[in-house]
Amino acid sequence: MSAAGTKAPSPAPVDQAPEHTGSRGATLVQRLVVVRELGIFAALLLLVLVTVIANPRFLSGQNMRDLLLSASILTVLAAGQTIVIVTRNVDLSVGSVLGLSAYASGTLLANAPGTPVIVVILAGMVVGALCGVLNGAIVAIAKVPSLVVTLGTLYAFRGLDSLWASSSDRLQINAADLPASFKSLGGARLLGIPVLFLIAAAVVLLVGFYLRNYRSGRELYGIGSDPAAARLSGIPVGRRVLVAFAVNGALAGLAGVLYAARFQTLDATAGTGLELNVVAAAVVGGVAIFGGSGSVYGAALGALLLTTIGTSLPQLGLNPFWRDAAVGALILAAIVLDRTLSLRLARRLRGRNLRGS
Amino acid sequence: MDHAPAPPAPGRPTTGSVVLALDDVSKNFGAVAALRGARLELRTGEAHALVGENGAGKSTLVKILAGVHGPDSGRLLLDGREVTLDNPAAARAAGIAVIYQEPTLFPDLSVAENIFMGRQPLTGGRRIDRKELASRCRALFDRLGVRLDPDRPARGLSIADQQMVEIAKALSFDARVLVMDEPTAALSGVEVERLFTVARSLRAGGAAVLFISHRFDEVFALCDRITVMRDGQWVSTDPTADLTVDQVVRRMVGREVASLFPKIDVEPGEVVLEVRGLTRLGVFADVSFDVRAGEIVALAGLVGAGRSEVVRAVFGVDAYDSGSVRVSGADLRKGSPAAAMAAGIALVPEDRRQQGLVMELSVERNATLTRRWKLARFGLLSARGERATAEEWAARMHVKAGKLSDPVSTLSGGNQQKVVLAKWLSTDPRVLIVDEPTRGIDVGTKAEVHRLLSQLASDGMAVVMVSSELPEVLGMADRVLVMHEGRLVDDIPRSRADESAVMLAATGQGGTTAVAS
Amino acid sequence: AMVLTTAACGGTTRGEDEGSDAGAEATASADPDAEIPADLAFAFLPKQLNNPYFDIAAEGAESAVAEVEGELNVTGPSEASASSQVSYINTLTQQGAEVILTSANDPNAICSALDQARSGGAKVVTFDSDTDPECRDLFISQATSEGIAQAQIDIMAEQIGGSGQVAILSATANATNQNAWIALMEEYAAEEYPDMEIVATVYGDDEDEKSFQETQGLLQTYPDLKGIISPTTVGIAAAARYLSGSEYKGQVALTGLGTPNQMREFVKDGTVTAFALWNPEELGYLAAYAGAALAAGQITGEEGETFEAGELGEYTIEADGTVVLGEPTTFDADNIDDFDF
Amino acid sequence: MAVDTAPATPAGQAPAQRPQGPSRLRLLGTGDGVITFVLVAFLLVAGFTVEGFASSRNTGFLLLDVVVIMLIALPLTLVIVTGEIDLSVASTVGLTSAVMGQLWFSGLPLELIIPICLLLGAFLGAVNGFLVTRLGLPSLAVTIGTLALYRGLAFVVLGDRAVADFPRSWTGWALSSIGTTGIPVVVVPLLVLVVLTGVVLHATPIGRSLYAMGNSEDAARFSGIGVERTKFWLFVVTGAVAALGGIYWTLRYGSARADNAQGLELQVIAAILLGGVSIFGGSGGLVGVIAGALLLGSLRNALQLVNVPSDVLNIVTGVLLIIAVVTPQVAAAVRGRRRPRGRPAAP
Ligand SMILES: Nc1ncnc2c1ncn2[C@@H]1O[C@H](COP(=O)(O)OP(=O)(O)OP(=O)(O)O)[C@@H](O)[C@H]1O
Ligand SMILES: Nc1ncnc2c1ncn2[C@@H]1O[C@H](COP(=O)(O)OP(=O)(O)OP(=O)(O)O)[C@@H](O)[C@H]1O
Ligand SMILES: [Mg+2]
Ligand SMILES: [Mg+2]
């Protein structure tokens, strides 16, 4: 017991703590977050610019309105998806939930044409929230990967939807079955801006504000950043994840009602295959697929960008066959850009840890 | 988190009332009995040490206090009343703050948010008050003497800084009971001193501090009483003043421990490892040194000096920008651990959970991972061959494990470290690099590791040892290389190596001796 | 002797077709007076289940099957893909269906599966969308392709005065029917209305949203566009909805193929003046009768044979084993309320 | 699973019993064991109750439907075991099919087209691999991008056309069966690939390193495993095998189209996950995957035979997938709750 027996000397004091610089980090980090969203915004502007040069009518009021209208449903879905992705989960069932909610609200209106619009919206959101709660409960209680669970409910909700449609007397609900008051919502404008888009924008602002400024919102980021640490920090992980899924479901339900108002032809296929677009919008918008970072504003910009591509390609005179390819290339470009930026940030943070070399 | 300055302590309150007590607590993980009738009693205004070998159940006990695990049997008493802590939030509400053995930070969130997660200061509208958040964070850091930007993300913090953030978090609770599970393992001298100052002021303010460490100097310097645990059971609780290190160690181990630093003197042979002008921009620069067969070379320095980065670059896990590495005269391809292994280098990394082991895989798979190609016949592996090799090495390293087919995550920290060593020694390396080989390891195991290193060197292996523990460096090394801020600043032979020489160089005040070439 | 020659011909054209005995049925001779056996097992396999258009066709098939006292099994995939259709055809083969009424998602991909069904004794009647003529016994065409193409061009020409830019909004890029019609439309327009210019063909993939966006794109890209022809029910409905809510309503003409129920609203509000379609119910009805006649041996699928199709009367088989339902109906404000499908 | 139900066991006996209890439970608890058991049970039940299910012709139909799914599942299982994912496989099938059609249309012989297509597939996989391993991007995001890109390129190549005049000798082979067994000929090469993949995954150093990477990439790297290189080549192989799937798909349906196999990726992934492979990597086995693919295929087949509508089929598929991941968790929870009760207080 020689060395341990003699009390080991306490570590010699050193005159200074390791150096860390102060506020430059803050501006750098904030700048990066802004840059991320600015990057997408710049891409969007560039695309619009190119399209306008090729076809000046792109900027016409009608076209802009159409563009915003087209983007609004995807935007609502992307906002909801962001809440879920931030917690290191994903919800692939949103397309099916949208379909279910759209068909439900169509059925409600066809059977009770007098229902006020707000009640229809609430009903759609309730349907969506129920689906979301089911997803969230399985994920949170059984602690199983959400990718698998929602892949399962993607099939199951769609199956329910078409089972419902085929067993009811209305396989397809058409514009003629819907009351005028509801249909007018699809084209309605406020100050020249489509109401559907205003709804989507309100959703984005609300969600964005919540995620940034409320404790439970920040906890969602914490959960996604490190689930084990979240549990040790006393965050009610299961409950938060459940709520995230429920809110996302409710927003998908809302998107379903908007879909009904806009397309007015509702059958069991509404929203099929939408899930990848939604995830793509979020990813393009800088929401990290493994949780913990990204903002709903970015996701909304992503949705707008994807929609703009969809509408501007034909106007650029490009073969419509190029559309999917362009969307794919864009997604890749966005994640590469995002990666490059965050690498640069990491390098600078590391560089500032160590001085002198 | 307005911390009222601690009232001046009127002397040491040695007999405060009991705030928190564990009584006859047991906890099983599957077939492993982590705790069997453990006991603990914390009083107000005391700093209480919990010591025990690796796997004695210290961390498990902490997690029961923290509400992470529920005990299978036994009672938890808070102010004399029995309570059940179902989750970490409940423990926190009861005034128990915990610094876990492994950092639990959110890499994507800012440092300030990490500290105040779930307790961020609010404005009237229940919104987070960001300004207040940053200023409280800064106040905490001032108290700890840390200079960190509250708004930077936790990602990329060094282990030491991560630990400081954890400490700040625990402090911010203003808790009645502060539990620290090996908080100093990654800290350097100054930081440890600061932590102790804070802990003492908390104690003076009437809080109870539970301190877990494998470093006896710290335990004796800080704590009023010491509880010893062995094999999940309570052994003894006594005032520090009545104990010597020897006694504690004997109680922990239940047997005599051989000399801690059994250095065997060896005549160094050929140069095996040559590092020349190794530079990684922003991390380390112009690092050159040689290691001979039979030599133990220690790489010393303050935490964050870049030692780990150097050995990682040598082993090829990290890239480097310029310089070269030669093994037995042959150039080593850069950036390829496989090439390094083929050349006979082995690296026992500093973070065993992240880097050393695949936690979900079994002990045997981990132990044979580095030898998977050698064990294969015609490209195929046989389960029996793997098992036999694993058994042999587990026996040689005295690994304490339930079954070799259990996940290595079920082993205690020290036994995990032995598996890492086994995994690398089984490759029969010419150069063994060990990064913090005894971090978080109990005395008994530590001595075993040291004897092993010494033995290996005397058998002709070249050993590079990165260590933050001065006694270990001085006791084991033939030569001490000292790094400061990414540069190699000194090369001290065993004859001249003493504490002050190493510390002076490490803090950048030593003479910048030209280093071996 | 006639019969033998047919068989031989079948043999030579399928020179490479080893093992498949699908042609064997052709050896049976037609007996126009044969009774339709009771309890025939019919299977109705649309491109996709839960599609309103095919749902109506299924209703037609149902009444025909009831009239011949058979049994009808409506089955099919939930997505319109050839591969899942193959899987359903295989199931029908295994179940021993005697008459298969199907609309192909791909003219070739389901061929081998149909061959196998036929070698198991089933009669295959395609309707709406044909396969390779070799793989089925009969095809029930909703109208001649020429008829469909000409009707749409004529309606459009009437509305825009025979000149100006016109665009086409189609279904998927692979849709057999639409592609055939579009080719014929372009040909016919070039001949009859030289001042009418077909400037673009875009694809809405038979998805409402995509069709909607494509309409919007067309109007942006071609400011002078006078009209849109959408030869698909999904497309025309989406385009009508877009137009009715935009400043182009009444400015840009829209026609194509649509169902009265979907289009009623837009005919009434003036977005659409006229459009065309056959009656899908009659299409399903005729297909079922044709299948029954094949199974009974009244016909073998040769050109010139005739059969009785219940209340629709007598039909004659034309070249390539095709039976044409009739000319498409044109719907406008005057007659649209007489139809409910 | 009724083990450890007797808490009253005398203390002395318990240890003797314990080792076998958990291990038997574990066998049933792993995805492999459960899913294989379920498959066998289902085949037996369906064989006796569903008319026309247990015939050689139906076996052929069933196998033909799952051949491509199983084929692509092989390399994709390895990819998922390493903790990555490739969603672009079905688009690779589509693009290969389109290119194959275009080349055939322009007059090249199939003997030349097939190697070109395989190379193309390998290249498409290499693009994924490059983006994931060199640029360090998350594979989920990357392959959502290439899912759209490759499918889009397929349409760019072949547009709205379908090329269908492939020689009967080739398309006939794709459908022919071994003698009168009803078992398709292609099952033989597939079986070879299954065995090969199984051996690689479970009995070679490469397989070991895949599991290590899937659990902890860092630890694997520190153990001298070339993580990036291995993953890169896995993506390449996945691309090439998907291309093989595309070639087979085109021949089997005799039709090259840009939209071939759209949505197939979800079916393949469903089969893999049903087979007990963790989506997070590091666990699962090939036996389970094969059983999962067969279970999905035969379930659909049997339900179709009894005229269950496709809506219900979708619901069943979805629910099955969820049950497959939830069951082991529930089993573990039940096990965890039982053990302490069954244990003696102190040895
Ligand atoms: N989650 C778990 N699952 C299974 N076994 C566990 C778990 N956590 C701890 N153990 C086991 O419980 C025993 C006590 O471990 P614990 O971590 O409490 O030891 P410790 O005293 O903190 O050791 P160290 O000083 O190495 O940190 C060990 O045998 C360990 O393997
Ligand atoms: N993952 C990382 N990201 C950013 N910076 C890092 C990272 N790891 C280490 N660093 C920084 O690199 C420098 C060198 O760290 P390194 O770990 O090599 O130091 P060390 O001397 O080995 O200390 P330790 O005793 O902690 O191992 C430090 O400033 C550290 O903060
Ligand atoms: Mg511990
Ligand atoms: Mg280090």
TrEMBL record, chain A:
Pfam families in the record, alphabetically? BPD_transp_2
Q: Which organism is it from?
A: Blastococcus saxobsidens
Q: Which CDD domains match?
A: TM_PBP1_transp_AraH_like
Key words of the record: Cell inner membrane, Cell membrane, Membrane, Transmembrane, Transmembrane helix, Transport
Q: Which residues cross the membrane?
A: 38-55, 67-86, 117-142, 191-211, 241-261, 273-291, 296-313, 325-346
| UniProt name for this protein | Autoinducer 2 import system permease protein LsrC
Keyword Cell inner membrane present in the record's keywords: the answer is yes
Show the segment(s) annotated as Disordered: 1-22
Family annotation (InterPro entries) = ABC_transp_permease
**GO cellular component entries:** plasma membrane
Quaternary structure, from the entry: The complex is composed of two ATP-binding proteins (LsrA), two transmembrane proteins (LsrC and LsrD) and a solute-binding protein (LsrB).
- Keyword Transport annotated: yes
**Membrane topology summary:** Multi-pass membrane protein
Which GO MF terms are attached to this record? Answer: transmembrane transporter activity
- Compartments in which it is found: Cell membrane
Give the protein's function: Part of the ABC transporter complex LsrABCD involved in autoinducer 2 (AI-2) import. Probably responsible for the translocation of the substrate across the membrane.
From TrEMBL, chain B:
Q: Which GO terms describe its molecular function?
A: ATP binding; ATP hydrolysis activity
- Which Gene3D superfamilies does the record cross-reference, listed alphabetically? P-loop containing nucleotide triphosphate hydrolases (3.40.50.300)
- Keywords in alphabetical order: ATP-binding, Cell membrane, Membrane, Nucleotide-binding, Repeat, Sugar transport, Translocase, Transport
User: What Pfam families does UniProt report for this protein, alphabetically?
Assistant: ABC_tran (PF00005)
Topological relation to the membrane, as annotated: Peripheral membrane protein
The record's principal subcellular location, in a coarse class, is: membrane
Kindly list the GO CC terms recorded for this protein: plasma membrane
Q: Which part of the chain is the ABC transporter domain? A: 20-256, 266-510
- List localization entries: Cell membrane
InterPro entries linked? AAA+_ATPase, ABC_carbohydrate_import_ATPase, ABC_transporter-like_ATP-bd, ABC_transporter-like_CS, P-loop_NTPase
> Which SUPFAM superfamilies has this protein been placed in?
P-loop containing nucleoside triphosphate hydrolases
The protein, known as:
Monosaccharide ABC transporter ATP-binding protein (CUT2 family)
Name the species this protein comes from: Blastococcus saxobsidens
Q: Lineage in the entry?
A: Bacteria, Bacillati, Actinomycetota, Actinomycetes, Geodermatophilales
From TrEMBL, chain D:
Query: Where does the sequence pass through the membrane?
Result: 34-54, 61-81, 112-131, 137-158, 170-203, 232-251, 272-295, 315-334
What molecular function terms (GO) are annotated for this protein? transmembrane transporter activity
Q: How does it sit in the membrane?
A: Multi-pass membrane protein
Q: Does the keyword Transcription regulation apply?
A: no
Q: Which Pfam family, just one, is annotated for this protein?
A: BPD_transp_2
GO cellular component terms, alphabetically, are: plasma membrane
* Record protein name field: Autoinducer 2 import system permease protein LsrD
Q: Which organism is it from?
A: Blastococcus saxobsidens
